[in-house]
Description:
Number of strands of chain A: 2
Structural class of chain A: mainly alpha
Mean pLDDT of chain A: 81
Shape of chain A: globular
Structural class of chain B: alpha/beta
Shape of chain B: elongated
Strand order of the largest sheet of chain A: 1-2
Helix content of chain A: over 70%
Oligomer: heterodimer
Order of helices and strands of chain B: EEEHEEEHHHEHEHEEHEHEEHEH
Largest sheet of chain A: 2 strands, antiparallel
Helix content of chain B: 25-40%
Number of helices of chain A: 10
Strand content of chain B: 25-35%
Distance between the termini of chain A: 25 Å
Mean pLDDT of chain B: 84
Low-confidence stretches of chain A: none
Strand content of chain A: under 5%
Largest interface: A-B, 23 and 28 residues
Amino acid sequence: MWKLIRLEWKKYHTKKYIIKQAVVFVVLGILFFAMCYYVPIDAELGISESAPEAANMKEQIELLTNLVFLVFTSSMLSSFIIKAYNNKTQSLMFCYPISRKKIILSQMMAVWIFCAVALFLGKLFICLLLALSSEVGTGLPLGYDMLSANFYLQIILKTVLTVTLAFIPLYIGKLMKSSRAVIITSFLLFSVMNGNIGDLTLRANMILPVFLFGVSLICGFLTVHNVEKEDVM
Amino acid sequence: MQTILTTNHLTKQIGAETIVSDLNMHIAKGEIYGFLGPNGAGKTTVMKMITNQWKPTSGDIVLFGEKLLPDSYSFLKRMGSMIEFPVFYNELTAEENLKLHCEYMGYYSPDSVEKALSLLSLSDNRGKKVKEFSLGMKQRLGIARAVLTKPEFLVLDEPTNGLDPAGMKQFRDLFRMLCKEYEMTILISSHLLSEIESLAHTIGIIHKGRLIKEISMKELTDKGLEYLEIRTSEITRASYVFTECLNISNFKVLNNNLIRVYTKEATSREIMKALTENQIEIQGFHSQTESLEEYFLKVTGGESECGN
Lengths: 233, 308
């Protein structure tokens, strides 16, 4: 399986994705840095006007990086699997002496591992950047402690959730044989997860992420299930 | 002779449409099997089922002595194929595509990629991305990939598409060499009947999803592809003479005054003598040899276009 995953990365020149993601995180890092430090200092309090936002900074980082990565993971899954069906390279793959389930699973895992690691490292990079700046700069409280295990546990859980959620758009895209459907579904999914109507937001609710995580796993299973018996069109 | 492939009552339905029906095909080890049929006859569908891309609705495929199941895949290690048009990872170079193929096939042999590229005159293009290749070059690369791992059974769907005459000859020579030197069994479909005629040991003719004829080229030659064409205004009487006096059943009335008689059952002298004795006026008389194309047209009922 590991060999198949590596071959997937090789086939799609995954290095170019690394560069893209590095650029995305640098841009996001600069954005968050600006949000924290490049706003006027409140004359009365003597601290940045963005201090209230800075206290929720981790949540902001999670929100934006998760949005970017849900779309990014979906787009990668679309390139690795849906486009492969559309441009017939999946037919080529199914001519190899490897079980179809294993092939699709390796394609899903290649994207999942790559995006999960990138998202985790990216979040760490941004949090570290802001924490170091806070340390040597204004001392603005950021609302997170990078020395606590809970910090890492939360990042890991949210990263796993975000990347796994992309199996829902993948399944929809496979059903509709459309790459566009994958991207659109990922946006809709994010809106459901993070949108708010007035004060009501599903983000704060623990049940919805758990429910969607379960649905994602089912979609992942359905993507692979029965693939041995399908005609490759 | 050992059989590489047998299909038993192979049938494929998509929706209400039956694409392949009750097909019984036999390919012997070490032969080149020419698969002929007009457009839409079902050739590609059969090839897709043999390579396990499409699953039969009913019937069996026995490959290398083992019945294919929906989740069979290990047999693919012994096969090379190119179906419809060659598909590649266009952003990779020719060499990278072939190396990737070796990895997936679990085939590790030093210089195999270089040899395959050289065999198909692609050595100079090894570093070129496939997206920059012409159709003819892709076709060559597709063949290079199919033969790269020296498979026992090669399945090629219209491999000469997009090639110039020199390329076609090179392919013909290559297939003969692979069959002779590597004892490869080759199933090849082509719209160029003359190509198959000069290459195949056995031909299978598929028409409207049914295999209507499977015959060795030797048998085809022996069977009497030579014929006489007789021009006469007395077609009915001439037909009577063939049936009753000469016991010839293999003849065909082409139009109101032209009749074709396959000469296996009687010599041209005997035919002429019988017609003269029965006072049938002969306006013209000549002997010809039937090409595979004519044979094909005869068995398919006159479909003028072959290929799928």
